Amino acid sequence: MDNRSSGPYFVELIYRNVPALKQSSFRNVYKYFVLFLTFVIYVTYHLSRKPLSVVKNQLSPCSDVNITSQNCTGGWEPFNGSDGKEMLGALDSCYLFTYAFFMFISGHIAERMNLRYFLFFGMLLSGISTSLFGFGRIWAIHNFWYFAVVQVFLGIVQSSGWPPVVACVANWFGKGKRGFIMGIWNSHTSVGNILGSVIAGVMVNVDWAWSFIIPGLIILGMGCVVFLLLIPHPHDLQPNTNYSALIDPDHQEADNGDNNRYQDERVRLINDDEIDTTNDAININQSQASLEQEGGVSEGDGEPIGFFKAILIPGVIEFSLCLFFAKLVSYTFLFWLPYYISKTGNYDPTQAADMSALFDVGGILGGVVAGIVSDYHGGRALTCMVMLLIAAPSMFIYYIFGGVSFGLSVFLLMVCGFFVNGPYSLITTAVSADLGTHPSLKGDSKALSTVTAIIDGTGSIGAALGPLITGLLSSYGWDYVFYMLIISDVIALLFLMRLSYKETRAIKWRRLFRCCIDNDESSRRLIS
């Protein structure tokens, strides 16, 4: 079934009535607008997920093991009892398990309908469901199951965000510098967390209901912008245009020259078995580089890819399992860091929310650096593995020394965010897009949402387990929580060891090829 359609009327009106904008220039300008628009889209998605982690202290101020309900007042029934922390952990799990399950379904549906409509309805419903949690206070609802059902519904509709935005970016941008572009672009996760922390933190001392209602209104309004302005695929801009011919010729010529220089040598000097690495599985299919380097993926004529075919793409299983544990760690920080800072550092909810945002600042830098490094040497798995290796001791050092001083806590939070969120960012963006345009798919972009959903859906199961386990372990002491996070981080890097080893060999061979080619060219110059 063809899921393409005409673009938004407003954009088409500009396209038809501004003669100064030729097709190629309009397309080149608009693709960067798509990058910006999808960035803002997912900022609002993450912004609307953050309020509960900030409001937890207001809902359950008396649930620590060292505090009894007799000498503590406040909170919101039913969360203000001694088991309030466990109930809040259950709410996190209601959202995260539902989100993880429906992520697989979301990717399947997104492949089969127009992504603009899919995102519009998803954001509309996300805004409503986020606001409903806040209305629980306005309507004086004290039933746990009301909040649990709201979280389940929120998990369902929030799963509408990630597969389509990754597909849109991959549709418009090819594989050249994908890690760098998507590393910067994926900072939307951290920017959304920061804005969500700030907005919810400001409103929580006024009325915690508005900590949910305002983010809900923001994502709802952004959904309307998506409906008016988003074109998911270059083909939708002008269906009869051969958009691959609109590639920037200078960029294409430079990329093709580099590809042609090494292609013959790679085939001649090394057999297929030796280069069957993650780099070949998820990076550039050089025979298609003239189209994909800058102009995005081709539309493809085949049917959308099936689930079982998608998981057989080389690298999908390994990266999915790695993300399971990496996202477990990341989302534990996302949902529990403000609470941990408040309880262990004696900060009020607003200060704790502001400090937790520093973890996301480090995450932004980590995602960008991971993308740049992996673009440079082509080793996505190797980059992730090294960062995960450093993340484990970073978390331990933060736990031991994070409370020594404010300045040291700020520094260690940023370091932890850098190494924890860097691999998570790279896997959910550049790696997912690379695998979704695997050479065996022959440039069929209809695999993008499915592959993205499989990887992020598997990771989201881990994201659901992390906060749930944290809610249980924290009752026995936060040291057990950090041990759990460190062990999870180590397991995540173990899943990438085989791929990292093969990437290391591939990098060594590429350097050897370049050395041989450079020596050959130098010899020819001397002879001539």
UniProtKB/TrEMBL annotation:
GO cellular component: membrane
InterPro entries listed in its UniProt record: MFS, MFS_dom, MFS_trans_sf, SLC37A1_2, Sugar_P_transporter
Topology in the lipid bilayer: Multi-pass membrane protein
This protein's record includes keyword Transmembrane: yes
Location in the cell: Membrane
Annotated transmembrane regions: 29-47, 87-105, 117-139, 145-173, 180-202, 208-231, 316-337, 357-374, 381-401, 407-427, 447-469, 481-501
Broad class of the protein's primary localization: membrane
Tagged with keyword Ligase: no
One of the record's GO molecular function terms: glucose 6-phosphate:phosphate antiporter activity
Keywords of this entry: Membrane, Sugar transport, Transmembrane, Transmembrane helix, Transport
Family of this protein: Belongs to the major facilitator superfamily. Organophosphate:Pi antiporter (OPA) (TC 2.A.1.4) family.
Protein name: Sugar phosphate exchanger 3
Taxonomy of the source species: Eukaryota, Metazoa, Spiralia, Lophotrochozoa, Annelida
